[in-house]
What we know:
With 106 residues, this protein is α+β, with helices and mostly antiparallel strands.
Amino acid sequence: MSINITVVDEDGESREVEWRDNQTLLECLHKNQYPVLATCGGNASCATCHAFLDPEHFPASGERTEEEEDLLEMIDDVATETSRLSCQTEYHDELDGATVTLKPGM
Ligand code: FES
């Protein structure tokens, strides 16, 4: 199964991409050639995979883990209420149509 999401890149360009059910959001972004740094390799310890979900779809992205909350607190100058670590964001059907915005300079 898969859904479609819109990704707004660091230059403000938006593109619709496919997100497959066996991918995290980070894997989906990488598969679609977005150069998300992901320094820690998806282990919830660097925050370089930070992305913003649109407020309408944010609840469907599930609960943040404690590690994720801690990391987002460390970057609270840029993180918002709808921030997620893309490596910790699992696929969900209800995220169909979501907009994911990458932080400028990622
Ligand atoms: S890749 Fe490091 S926290 Fe997501």
